[in-house]
Design brief:
By secondary structure, the chain is mainly alpha-helical. The chain contains three helices and no strands.
């Protein structure tokens, strides 16, 4: 406990440390081309997942609408 008190900074520099800690990684992250490429890939993957979820919901609605019907409509025989 005493060691923590020695290492803990005073309350004065904490707000500036907090702003530097939160802004620093964001600034560095956008400058790195590898990270930018990964963020672009993540956006693309999220968009694909959204599209797949919409397709799934539409298929579920179509299945629910046709539930109980025969898979193929009956054809009338020609006289």
């Amino acid at each position: 406990m005493a060691l923590m008190r020695l290492l803990m900074p005073s309350a004065g520099p904490l707000p500036t440390f907090r702003t530097m800690a939160f802004r620093g990684p964001q600034r560095r992250r956008t400058d790195d081309p590898k990270v930018a490429a990964l963020e672009q890939e993540l956006k693309r993957a999220k968009r694909l997942v959204g599209d797949l979820m919409m397709d799934k919901e539409l298929l579920e609605m179509r299945i629910a609408r046709h539930e109980g019907e025969l898979p193929f409509p009956r054809r009338r025989s020609n006289p």
